Fold N-acetyltransferase domain-containing protein.
Amino acid sequence: MATPPQFLVRDVETVDGDGLFIISTFDAALPFLDSIGSHEQWGSTPFSHQQSWVEDTLRQIRDAENYNLTANSKGERLHVFIVERQCPAQGAEVLGAHYRIAVDGRRFLSVGFAFVRDNWFPSYITSQRHLHIGDAEPGNIVYLEVMVTDSRVGSLRCGAGAALIRAVHNYSRNRGKDALYLDGWAGNEKKLIKYYDQQGFRVVDDFYLPRPHRTPWWGTLMRMDISE
């Protein structure tokens, strides 16, 4: 399950503007989701307009970098991956996109990211008794909490999600984990769930989360055995 050569998956860094890239990519996802009929997934309020969310996200990025460097974490064992695509040194830049120049002069375009946590399930999953999380051996799993690719770069992101999933799978296997879990929005004819199924995840069960003055948020919990 090697990462395709056109993509580089690396650890997050606070010095390369990764925090700004992650926040702006979350924002850019909203109009894209609206364009494909998935506006109910995350709503329409830009993430960058939610100050507490921004502060918490930047804190998590710092914690993830510290965990990667020292194996110590003040919170959950969070790891953040950035997926990049190498591009010509003199090529035209995509408006609003995030670029990085490596020490050897190569130029990379950031096209997505993933947040993963070791031995952890979100509380909105553990509260769903019908999912039987007690049977999931939470002490030996990895949870793919969120994965987003940058809609601003168009077709340059094609394959970036698959590259991230391969990287997370390898991360899990190298740590001797049994399974990789995630949950996804189950609205809009389960298009997102079908995508994850194509990447090798299998459905555990559906669930829903009540939302004040709105329809419930419908989701699906999925699992991938690391031996696959």
User: Anything to note?
Assistant: The CA atoms of residues 13 and 65 lie 6 Å apart. The domain at 7-225 is CATH 3.40.630.30 (Aminopeptidase). Residues 51-70 form the longest helix (20 residues).
